Amino acid sequence: MGGRHHGRLHDGLCAPARVRGRDRCPADRGLVAVATISQILAAWIVAAEVPAAQQGKATLRVLDTLGLVAAALDTPQAEAVREFACDQGGGSQAGLVGGTRLPAGLAALVHGTLAHAFDFDDTFADSVVHPGSVVVPTALAAGEAHAATGAAVLDAVAVGYEVAARLGAVAGRGFHGRGFHASGIIGPLAAAAVASRLMGLTADQTAQALGLAGSMSGGLLAFVEDGSWSKWLHLGWAAQGGITAAGLAGRGFRGPVSVLESDHGLYAAHLGSTEGVEAICDDLGGVWQGDQALPKTYPCAHVIQPFLDTAIEARSEENLAADTIAQVICTLAPWAVPIVAEPRSLKLEPSGPLDAIASLPFMVAAALVEGRVDLDTLAPESLVRPDILALAARVEHEADATLGQGFDGRLEITTGRRLRYEVRAHVAVPAQLREKFRRNAGRNFAPGAVAAIESAVDGLAEDGFAPLWQACTTSRGTENP
User: Fold this and answer.
1) Is the terminal CB of the chain with fewer CB neighbours within 10 Å at N or C?
2) β-strand 327-332 against 395-399: which pairing, if any?
3) Does residue 10 carry a pLDDT above 50?
4) Under 8 Å between Cβ of 96 and 134
């Protein structure tokens, strides 16, 4: 019985799937009279008119991400992933910060992994997806490999953020609740959107790329148990996967265009439900949900960030000395407790940077002891400082379900008196992001090179890639080791 599925019989090539309330067999595309969500999204991806304001935001996102990559250049994980990528051979399509050229997918793998290495990248509060470490490495690699203009790259960054925001919003915290790293699930599709646009794919090819990228989604939260590096790899892997998906689709390799709403699709497989998928394409281009990405000012989990703002402010205003603090109580939303507060033994004495990044007591103690938290807080000598560890042991946590899904909370510091603060998330302003970039890039580049990279990013729309990679590959090293 060939060809069509009529509710009882099909040709044996596939099982019937439910798609937006209709039975269909993927082998017979003619049965679906309406476009799938991926097809609607793909049509927007390839043709979206990006407002000038979005291009300006994309410039800052590129700058922030490149600073994170530069800061991570000398880490062990950078050495491992860079060496692996170089060993694969192939063409020299795209440049790397610090030197060398690689095929586009491998360049994105390296940059994506490094950009997430300190958990210092931006986040969507609703889904805890990190868009920058996937979208920007993909845009830079695919853009250079396919001779895109700098303006086209910035437009693609804006589109990638939008896709990541909308796909992540469907799940909320659902991926984390099932043991998945949300950035590893959503990242490949956002990267595929970016790469498809920069490669000049048609809407149909882009829908196929999104379908293929859905099968590249993955990433487990198992790293929370031992501080291993798989967390960082998820972002690089997602960037490489998106480029691979777009490259295959551009050559005629077909993917499932019902990957978002199908009973065998992304959400059904990972969450057991497709609830909310209909909202993905609502008011595309009218409301830019990518604007909700929150950049970080400290190298740690985003839910910890507002507690550090409050702790540093309290220390300054009250002239607090760490040895006079008897107890600190951090009240936070229940969803965040297993990420940054438990298991308590691991959080009190982090064995490495990834443990520290996700430790509320350690980070709050460091803020109260030092009056700052930066990448030096993650140095090996800082992780074993007796004064920070002693105060961390006095930092307790409580969960309050009324705090919902956001990053707000409460902070109580007990000395000879009890100080209570409402903890509220804030959005970093452009000046803060530029200063963050300069500090991060300055860890491995001389001041003149840092300024040159910043200038090249600001001029990317007009001047293209040449000044950027020249700045990123020369004058390596700091003047003050």
Assistant:
1) C
2) parallel
3) no
4) no
Cα gap 351→228, rounded to integer Å: 10
pTM of this structure: 0.89
Query: In this model, does residue 11 exceed pLDDT 60?
Result: no
Cis peptide before 256 (omega within 30 of 0): no
| CA-wise closest residue to 358 among 381, 383, 324 | 383
Cα–Cα nearest to 335, from 263, 402, 235, 405 = 405
Which letter does DSSP use for residue 408 in this model?
-
CATH of domain 302-423: 3.30.1330.120
Q: Helix H segments across 400-464?
A: 430-441, 447-458, 460-463
Domain ranges of the chain: 1-26, 37-294, 302-423, 430-473
- In this structure, how many other beta carbons lie within 10 angstroms of the beta carbon of residue 179? 12
Please give the share of the chain, as a percent, with pLDDT higher than 70. 92
Which pair of structure tokens corresponds to residue 79? 């050495």
Could you tell me if 89 and 209 are in contact, meaning their C-beta atoms sit under 8 angstroms apart? Answer: no
Mean pLDDT of 31-58: 92
Q: What does the block give as tokens for 148? A: 């895109």
Rounded distance, CA 339 to CA 293, Å?
20
Q: What are phi and psi of 65, to 5 degrees?
A: -65, -45
- Radius of gyration over alpha carbons of the chain, in Å? 23
Q: For residue 20, is pLDDT > 60?
A: no
Report pLDDT digits (tens) over 304-357: 999 999 999 999 999 999 999 999 999 999 989 998 999 999 999 999 998 999
Token pair, residue 10, equals 């099909």
Asked whether the predicted pLDDT for residue 16 surpasses 90, the reply is: no
AA identity, residue 291 = D
Question: 37-294 maps to which CATH number?
Answer: 1.10.4100.10
Strands (DSSP E) found in 103-169: 123-124
Q: How far apart are CA 55 and CA 151, in angstroms?
A: 8
In this structure, what are the phi and psi dihedrals at residue 168, rounded to the nearest 5 degrees?
Answer: -70, -35
Whole-number average pLDDT of the chain? 92
Closest CA to 273 of 163, 181, 172: 172
DSSP per residue, 374-389: SGGGGSHHHHT-HHHH
Residue type, 196: S
Q: At 285, phi and psi to the nearest 5?
A: 85, -15
- At 7 the pLDDT is 33
